[in-house]
Prior knowledge:
This is SmpA / OmlA family protein. By secondary structure, the protein is α+β, with helices and mostly antiparallel strands. 32% of the residues lie in helices and 38% in strands.
Amino acid sequence: MKSRIGSLLILALLVAFAGCAGIGSTGPDVTDKEAREQALSAEETRVTQALENASYVTSSSVGIYAKPNATVLNSNSSAVKVRVKMPYSYEYSCEDGSSGAVDGLKTNVVYQVTDSNVTVMTITESIQNACA
């Protein structure tokens, strides 16, 4: 009988300790800091690729002349939503012969970050086309 009570007591203590240690918690597997870093990286990649693929852009920079910003908007049991503002600049040459540079522009995008995926949710300010 003693070993049965002892086993039950140990089991109860393990369950109580697991709850205190956060084992089995229902939060996302990604921290707010990790979500901000992943969203910043995703937006830098998205903007860089878009500028590299734009035929009118002759040179560009992303996140150099101003500091990128990532703010956690919401965190729930499955994901973290992060607003990213990414500064960019570029030089352009349009088909009509006009050319120049644009500096100090920013994108404004909300990402949803989970432990396995980073997804664009909304784009409030996208990359501006100086030749349009």
